[in-house]
Every structure is written in C-alpha cells, then in structure tokens.
Design goal:
Layout lengths: L9 H12 L11 H10 L3 H12 L3 H5 L10 H12 L1 H19 L3 H9 L8 H23 L15 E5 L16 E5 H8 L3 E3 L5 E3 L10 H6 L18 H11 L4
Antiparallel strand pairs: 1-2, 3-4
Helix pairs in contact: 1-2, 1-3, 1-5, 1-6, 2-3, 5-6, 6-8
C-alpha cells in the first residue's frame, strides 16, 4: 500500500522531475498511466506524484510563457532539484533512467525485501560506474522522451501520432556535437522516413520554419510516394514546440552544412 505523510527524498524528486520532462503539457495528471506507474514504483499515490509534477510546472519558464503558473507549493528541495536537473540534463537524464531501472528491479523483489533495498540504495551516486557503461543508451532514451513529449508525441511535419514510428532527430549530428546530445533544443520529432531524409540532408527547415525539400528528390518524376510524402510538403510550415523550440543557429548549421541544396 502507498504510504502517506512521509517526506519526499531527493532521489524520488529526481525521478519525478525526469517524468515531468518526459510528459507533454496537459498530461501530468493522476490518471496518466505513466504517473501511476511511477507512483507504484515509489510506493506513493498517483495524486501525490501528480501534485509534485504541478509543483515543478510552477518552476518551468516554458509554462510561465504559456500563462500557466502551476501550484505555488514547491518546496526548497523541489527548487534545488529542478535547478540541478535542468542545469545538466545529460547527467541527470542518465541518472534518472538508472533510477527507473533500479526501481523496476526492486518492484520484482519479494515484498519483505523491498524496503531494505530502497533504504540501502544510494541515490546520490552509487551507480556512477554503471552510468558510465550505459550512458550513451540512457542519454538517447532520455533525449527521445523529452523531444517526443515536447511535440505531444506527433511528427512536427506530418502530424503522425504513432510513437513506434517516431524518431527524436538531432539537428546537430550526435557524433560531431557531443555537448548537444541531450539538448532538447537540438531535437525534432519526425516520422522515421522524414528523420532519415533530414539526417541525409534531403530535407531541412528554413528561417521561416518551413520544410524545404532538396532538388535531389525531384529527380524521380512520377513517383507518387515521393510526391505525397516530400514534394507536396515543400514550404509547408513545421509545427514547432513551444517547450523546446529548435535553436535557429542549429537549424542554420543544418541548412549550410548538411542540406543538399543542389
């Protein structure tokens, strides 16, 4: 049974803060299955987790820009976790993924062993070596969660809403810009075929946030798939996230260095 009346720990708040960055605006309520799952793993009620999510919303400048203030009950520890987490998304995104793995492992233990396991877990850094071994995979997983959530789980070009067919695309290539690998402003939510085209420079986004199609794709006249999926979308406005809009300088690099303009 969930226990009430106990104080929130720093580690629990890291897990909730990670969930906050992984949920679209408007889905941070106790009826969301992801909120319910985290509550179960933490031994808390979905309502208490949802309340913490709203507390974090009150600290989020992106929410303020939307005119949403959230609850005003954020604690000092809430604020410290928020500031620490958002100042180094890669480090804490990876750590939060490790926390989730550990919580899921713990949930499979016999009930009598779970409390001892939780109390013995060093949230503040015992898994540093593990994080080093898994950091690339976990960083990619957290980046994907943030980018899809910021785009409400829809492709920003086609509107496709099927998560299994969506990719969190890097504007600045992963291999060449390691410092921007988990920067959500370096991400676009694209359907898989559009991600591939973006990665190969066959599409890009112009200064007015419109899709531009490479002339290379016009060399296949009469192909209905190309016409529908690419050529018909040329100069189409792209749906831009208000939470983590792509940085203009990142898009400018893509247009100049990756896009096949001729």
């Amino acid at each position: 049974m969930p226990r009430s009346g106990r104080n929130w720990t720093r580690g629990e708040l890291i897990a909730v803060c990670a969930l906050y960055h992984s949920l679209p605006f408007g889905r941070m309520h106790q009826g969301n299955p992801k909120v319910a799952e985290l509550a179960r793993l933490l031994g808390r009620t979905p309502g208490s987790v949802a309340m913490k999510l709203v507390n974090f919303a009150s600290l989020d400048p992106a929410q303020t820009r939307r005119g949403i203030r959230g609850l005003r009950g954020a604690s000092g520890l809430d604020r410290r976790v928020w500031e620490e987490f958002t100042s180094d998304l890669e480090r804490w995104g990876v750590r939060s993924e490790l926390v989730l793995e550990r919580l899921r492992e713990r949930s499979r233990l016999p009930a009598a062993s779970r409390q001892e396991e939780l109390e013995g877990f060093a949230w503040s850094g015992a898994d540093t070596e593990t994080a080093g071994r898994k950091s690339v995979r976990l960083a990619q997983a957290f980046f994907r969660k943030m980018v899809l959530a910021a785009n409400e789980d829809c492709c920003c070009v086609s509107g496709l809403p099927v998560q299994e067919l969506l990719v969190a695309s890097h504007i600045l290539p992963w291999s060449r810009f390691p410092r921007h690998r988990v920067d959500p402003h370096n991400g676009l939510c694209l359907a898989a075929h559009l991600d591939r085209a973006f990665d190969r420079g066959l599409i890009t986004i112009d200064e007015e946030m419109r899709l531009r199609v490479s002339p290379r794709l016009r060399s296949y006249p009469g192909n209905s798939t190309l016409a529908a999926e690419f050529l018909a979308r040329d100069r189409q406005p792209v749906r831009i996230s208000g939470r983590y809009p792509p940085k203009p300088e990142y898009l400018a690099f893509h247009r100049k260095q990756i896009f096949v303009a001729g």
